[in-house]
Design brief:
The protein has one domain. With 122 residues, the protein is mainly α. Helix 1 runs antiparallel to helix 4, helix 1 packs antiparallel against helix 6 and helix 5 runs antiparallel to helix 6. The chain has six helices and no strands.
Length: 122
């Protein structure tokens, strides 16, 4: 896997670890500062739902991190592509249903990661 792909994967994984933390552990505190469009009285009511979403973001991060430790180059690339595609789908869906900003935060890094594999066909 080329260095550019690895750097994008690290960034994307770190982003999803941050989202995990935000949604699972800081939803009713720091989450209010990040998700300003959600009425304040909804944070406590949606705490369990947000934690569930955070867990899914953690799975995406785990898959991306896993791809960096696979020694078989082809297998590593395919796992990375799969998890980047999952992030892309989640980012597009989030942009369509929740906030257009999600496209730029989640989907764009995934697109860049996928493009880095296409441009470096090794």
């Amino acid at each position: 896997m080329n260095l550019l792909s690895q750097l994008i994967i690290i960034y994307t994984a770190a982003l999803h670890v941050y989202i995990l933390w935000l949604e699972m552990f800081a939803w009713t505190t720091y989450g209010k500062k990040v998700f300003k469009t959600i009425p304040e009285d909804q944070f406590e009511k949606t705490k369990v739902m947000a934690a569930n979403q955070g867990l899914y973001n953690g799975f995406l991060a785990a898959g991306l991190i896993w791809s960096l430790f696979i020694t078989d180059v082809t297998w590593s690339k395919y796992i990375a592509i799969f998890f980047l595609a999952c992030v892309l789908v989640a980012g597009v869906y989030g942009a369509m249903t929740a906030s257009k900003r999600i496209f730029f935060v989640q989907a764009v890094p995934a697109i860049l990661g996928l493009l880095s594999f296409m441009l470096h066909l090794n």
